[in-house]
Structures are given as structure tokens and as C-alpha cells.
Amino acid sequence: MYILGISCYYHDASAALLKDGVVVAAAEEERFSRKKHDSSFPINAVNFCLRDAGITIDEVSHIGFYEKPFLKMERVLSQHLECFPFSFKTFLSSIPSWINEKLRVPGTIRKRLKYRGDIFFVEHHLAHAAASFLVSPFRKAAVVTTDGVGEWTTTSFGVAENSSIRLMKEIRFPSSLGLLYSTVTAYLGFSVNNSEYKVMGLAPYGDMNPETNPYYRKLRRVIDVKGDGSYRLDMGYFKYHYADRMPSDKFCGLLGAPVTGRGAEMSKRHKDIAAAVQLVLEEVLTKILMHVHKVTKCDNLVLGGGVALNSVYNGKILRRTPFKRVWIQPNASDGGTSIGAASFVYHCILKNRRGFVQEHAYLGPSFSDEEIRSYLDKGGVKYSELGSDDELVRKTAALIHAEKVVGWFQGRMEWGPRALGARSILASPLRPEMKEILNLKVKHREKFRPFAPAVCEDDALKYFECDTPVPEPADFMLMVYPIRKRWRSRIPAVTHVDGSGRLQTVRRHQNPLYYGVIKEFGRLSSIPIIVNTSFNIRGEPIVCTPHDAYRCMMGTGIDCLVMGRFIVFREDNGKDMWDSEKLAED
Predict the structure, then answer these.
(1) Is the full-model pTM beyond 0.90?
(2) DSSP string covering 193-224, please?
(3) Which domain holds residue 37?
(4) Which is catalytic among the residues 11, 37, 125, 360?
(5) H or E segment to which residue 560 belongs
(6) How do residues 516-574 score in pLDDT, each as one tens digit?
(7) What is the CATH number of the domain that holds 428?
(8) Same structural domain, 432 and 575
(9) CA distance 451 to 182
């Protein structure tokens, strides 16, 4: 039985395909359209999933959609009526998308896909919960979901067991921990639903002590938090419930003038504000989790929703709460809900037993050596071919050890926002200047942004103050831990200002080639850790195809591309080679 999951029309549209409960393919639309956070109907992602499984739409038994559009429309109408007349302009601008797209989902699915079967609509936070629990290693767990907003819900918790999920309590819009964090993101001049992780990365540059950070005390005025973690925002500080901007004048009066202009320099005040919102988030989440553990009496925890991508807090959960194990969907925000919707249909509606655990995120398109060779030959690209996997591993590790920046394009593309060793940029962590080289010459992004250390799971505890055993979400770059002090000066390119690292642990069975490169680099350098960052530049999605990868290398400071069995050096190929029409995709 095949079940297709779809999410779209807000941000990070995606599609996922289950075969008898097993996730066999999943991808976000942005990787095909090349529009970052593409929200449109994911026709390319759907077509990939069907093509990868070798089936047609007629073989799909059911489709699951990640929210209930009419329930969401009820909330939108309610909020605009409540805030009238201030909301009138925003209401008028939003109506066309509802009439033309969001309320026509069944018709769009049937028309675009020529689909005649059943369509199930899953409440948004149930889709988040399902995306995490139903593919987790747990038979029973407490479930907590936190995001901006679904239909009405912004935070929920419950219990999941076997093939059932029961959400017990919720907090409703407009109070939202996710939207509080997004408001500060907008206030600091970053883009909402895209750059919250920049605020997380900026926070350690500020004062992370709630006793001495004055903006922490000010931000606490905008949110009333009870002992059980339930909270309510003072909406006088916000405008997102009726306008197209988030902080109100009162909010700006509380914290001072907001950042204006792209690339504005961050002052100490701005860094302290980033630290303050991270402190508030951690305080509220800890109270929620303490209460959830008390109510559910479960030692296992699964997290869903965009707030679950806050890897700084994730690394503190097992130390601050009584939970003993945690699991997080690698694509925890809206992009991951297509897996959630499909899994909910298969298990919770159709009552099928669980038997699948998501052990990796390599669910996207792959390209054979023959396809890669054909692409390179077609464009007249100069390359060399390696004879074996062992040679590929040795050569790649040697290039990284020689301080080359390597574009790494191997196997199936990752699912979710993190590059995990399939579409990655790899570099040595040993040189202090490497962070600046990557930020300015390769990634074209802010100087304060940290880079992730990739380490084999069996070496992680030597270099990082991890939980023991290392939680599975660390495989998906979802946990930040302190780097042990003796190693911080040895790996400066991956050591953040507070001595931490958002590590990715790598297990041999997940990605043998990538694992081998890290181990071989360790043999050459005596430290088996490499820099891993996503294979893209600022403003573009992670690369998907050989053309995307070659184009990205030729337009940046990446020194070489290891793609399948082939190595391409940028210096061997002139600039005219990458913008030529003959290299365009068919």
C-alpha cells in the first residue's frame, strides 16, 4: 500500500511517500524549483517520489494533507474580525490566496495529480506529532509540539503509544512561543520563517545570564508564564495577528529601535536581545517539559514543530528535565509534516501496526555515476575519475587535510534543512581562518554564524560533553553540546564563541563513505572531526542535481567538487564553463 503525504501553501512545501508504512522517498519543493522555502503545490516533489518508487499516481491508495484548511480559515477570519478595522488591509491581501489555493486543496490535488482516491486532512499539530513519534524508535512517549501556529494550536502535548496519538492540552493563537521568537527575529532585521536559527547563533555573543541581561527582564514582561509552562502573550507588544509586521511600536519602545537594512552590524544590545529571547524560550520549554513528564510519566520524549529545530535547547533537555531519551524528526518544521500526514493516515486512521524507524534522512534524489559522467561530458567539464570507494575516501580526506574546501555530492539528497553528508561542503576544522573563509568567500553570509563539526558517533564523547549514550537527534545535527575544553583551541573553525558545537554524529551504517572520510581525516590530522555545512550559498536551497552542485562551486570559493566517483577542480574550469547554455538542465 502506497500513501502520499503533502504539505504546501505556507512555507517549505514538501511531499513524502510511504510503502506499507515505510518512508521510501521525501523531498521539499524548493530543491527542484530552486526557490528557497517554496510554498507552492509540490508537484516536482510528488513526481520525484512517484518516479523513485517506480509507480504512477493510480497506485497510491490514499493521500494525507498536513492541515485542515477550513479550520485554519476559521481562525484567520476570527482574528481579522476581532482586530477590525486594523486588520482590514492584511485581510484583503490574504483573501486571493485563500480563494485561489488554500480552500481548493482537494480539487487541486485531483486536477494536478489526476488522482481519484481518498484524501485525508490531518490537523497540523497532529501531523507534527505523527512526523516525530510514528517514525521514532519508541513504542510509547510523551509528545510536545511547538511552532508558530497551525490551524489554532501553537503548543500542544500528549501521549503516543503504538499506533495512536492523543494530544491532551494545547495553547492557542495568538499566544505563541514560536511567534515570539519570530518577532525578535524580525526585530533584529532577519527574515521570519527562515532566519530564526541566526538569532540562535547570535545569542551566545550576548549575555546568557538571566540575572545580568537587562533585555531578559524586559522580554519577560511580554509573556506571562505559569508553573506548568502554560503561557500567554501580552498582545499589545505584537502586530502579527492583524498586520504584515510582527513587533508593535510598544515592543520597539520596550527594547529600543529595531535593526533596519540588510547586513546591518549587530551591536551589543542586539546580541543581548538575541540572548534574552533564547533564555525566555529555554525557560518556558523547560517548565513545559517538567509538567509533561509529571503528567504523562513517560521517560521517552518526542518533539515536533519548528521550535524543535532549536538545537541549542535540544542539547540541554536530558540534563534539565527527567526525560531519559529524546527523538526529533530531522525535518521538524512544516516541511516534515508530509511524512506526518502520510504516517497518520497509515497508522492512526487505517490502524496499521508500526514497524519502521527513521534511522537516516537520505530520502531524496540520487544520481548514478553514469548520469554524473554524462552531465560533465556534455558540458566539457574537466574532471578525473577515481577507481574505488577507498581511493575516493583517501583523496577527499587528503584534500580536506590540505585545507581545500570540498563540495561533497554523494548518494541520496538529505531530507530537511540540514546537510548531513550527501549535499555538504566539507573543510578542515583545524585552521582558525577557515570559519571566515567559509562565511565570506563560500557561503556569503554573516560573520557570526557558526559551522557544524561532523564526528563519528564512536568518537563523539571524546571531544564533546554529550549525553550518554549520544541521542539519535545528534545524527541530524539537532543537538548543540559543549566542546571539551582541551580540544577547543585545536578545532577553532567549529568552536562557537561559547565553546559549543552543533555536532553531527555519523554512524557507519548510515553513510559509509562519509564516515570513512571523517575517519581518514582523523588518521591524517589526529583529530577525526571535519567541518560540515550545507552545499549552497545564502539565499539558495541546498543543491539537488549535478548541475546545481557544479554551478554552486563555480560561483563560490569552493576549491573542488567530489561528485560520485569524479573530482572536479574549479581552477581547471573557466568561469565561462558554468554559465554556458550547454550546462543548463534538459
Answers:
(1) yes
(2) TT-HHHHHHHGGGS---TTT-HHHHHHGGGEE
(3) 2-135+329-349
(4) 11
(5) strand 560-563
(6) 999 999 999 999 999 999 999 888 999 999 999 999 999 999 999 999 999 999 999 97
(7) 3.90.870.20
(8) yes
(9) 22
